[in-house]
Design goal:
Length: about 190
């Protein structure tokens, strides 16, 4: 943690709203992306993003500088997502038309529209949907580890710190997640 961040945290702990806003600005895009990767829904992401920073604001005085601030912040975000997913009723899509009619969940594959290749677009849409279904079938902790490692590029030691687990446990979660993903996507292995 750099000195500037430490000063911002200490000011925010004393109630300085500008310091808190500066902290939020440092991490808002990363936290938003993390939440989206965990929940795969734009509206839920916005709601949980707000909830995370409300929790951070309310508990900032408890931050004791025994870990990196981002580690503490990510732990709050991941735990909030896990708790939300426990409460959420899963919704399955009945048709490809429903997905195409404005579901933000698959926003990453819309790049093929620019190439004007409908066949690639449909194949990528289907594959993206299947990958997301496979990720959604992982346990909450497996999904968190997979997202932090492959979507956010964190090292296993950093993930262990964020999740409050041993590195061996994190390796186990990642291994099992990858195995489940491979099994779920066997039919697409040749692509």
């Amino acid at each position: 943690m750099d000195k500037e961040e430490e000063l911002l945290i200490k000011r925010a702990q004393r109630g300085n709203l500008q310091a808190f806003e500066s902290l939020v600005q440092r991490y808002d895009a990363k936290i938003m992306r993390l939440i989206f990767n965990m929940l795969n829904d734009v509206e839920d992401t916005r709601d949980i993003y707000q909830e995370v920073f409300i929790k951070v604001f309310k508990s900032l005085k408890k931050f004791s500088f025994q870990s990196e601030f981002y580690t503490w912040l990510y732990r709050i975000a991941i735990n909030t997502c896990i708790n939300f997913r426990k409460q959420r009723i899963s919704h399955q899509y009945d048709s490809l038309d429903e997905i195409l009619e404005g579901n933000d969940r698959n926003w990453r594959i819309y790049q093929d529209i620019e190439s004007r290749n409908p066949e690639n677009y449909v194949l990528n849409l289907e594959l993206s949907f299947k990958i997301q279904q496979a990720i959604d079938q992982l346990s909450k902790k497996q999904k968190a580890v997979l997202v932090l490692r492959h979507y956010h590029g964190y090292k296993l030691s950093e993930i262990a710190e964020i999740m409050g687990s041993s590195e061996g446990t994190i390796k186990n979660y990642l291994f099992r997640a990858v195995q489940k993903m491979k099994k779920s996507l066997e039919e697409y292995h040749h692509i």
